[in-house]
Amino acid sequence: MHDHAHHAGQNLRFAFFVNFVFTFIEIAGGIWTGSVAILSDAVHDAGDCISLGLAWYLQGVSDREANDRFTYGYRRLSALGALITGCVLIIGLSFILWESVHRLFEPKPVRAGGMVALAIVGVLANGAAAWRLRGGRSLNEQVATWHLLEDTLGWIAVLIGGAIMAFWDVPIIDPILSLGISAFVLVNVVRNLNKVALVFLQAAPAGFDVDQFRREAIALPNVIELHDTYTWTLDGERHVIATHLLMRAGATREDICVAKGELYRLLRDREFEHITIETELEGEHCNSAFPPAGHTCH
């Protein structure tokens, strides 16, 4: 886990510096080509630098050890970085969408050759950063990847539009491409932000079926019921669970250890780091404030 977090931090650092350098190239290129679209994207990339820098910092902090105040550690800071990055990206996309709609009605001539040259650099720079982050497991990396993919696709649109405008005077091509790509990226960013929201709302980990896990537990020897199961995820990767395991009255200490060991194995295979299993014997008083239907505490 530590190696993965370190690798994620390195990837975000690489993405930050690529974006930082390219922002200054964009500003100069926008002034040279006379393209308001490129200058507006430079402002957007400046915001990217802030969010990617923050994501890089929070990813590093999230790997700190737990302490008396943050007993689960700082894992959720990675999700916080994803939330901030996603919100900044939505703001930037909204700005680009507004500019694109405006240009649909008021197309402006630009220096097409300069746009093509700058777009090639933009595709290479942002594409390299997006490629570096591909397959990231943390929500932070996933949202940052869409951040960079949005930039890459935007520059592909500029490249196509610039190439067309180099031969034909149709400046409306640029905003049309920009609108389509921005809408596509926006849908995926919202989807990732929904995952982040579920983390903060302490929903069950994605892909973990509580009912299926309960059935697997009941199938174990001497196990009667699994109840009061509470589970959530710290950052989308590392999960927490607490549950009560009801054993038959005649179950021995060895039987209990075997059942708990099997449950630990099942949960470890599903990326659970913090596991609490309370065991009770049939007819024994349980400490649950809300026993499930059909289960009685004596």
Automatic annotation (TrEMBL):
Protein name: Cadmium, cobalt and zinc/H(+)-K(+) antiporter
Gene: czcD
Pfam families: Cation_efflux (PF01545)
Record keywords: Ion transport, Membrane, Transmembrane, Transmembrane helix, Transport, Zinc, Zinc transport
Domain Cation efflux protein transmembrane, chain residue ranges per copy: 14-197
Any one Gene Ontology molecular-function term assigned to this protein's record: zinc ion transmembrane transporter activity
GO CC annotation terms, alphabetical: plasma membrane
Major site of localization recorded for this protein: membrane
Organism lineage string: Bacteria, Pseudomonadati, Planctomycetota, Planctomycetia, Pirellulales
NCBIfam families reported in the protein's UniProt record: CDF
Keyword Transport in annotation: yes
Organism of provenance: Lacipirellula limnantheis
Compartments where found: Membrane
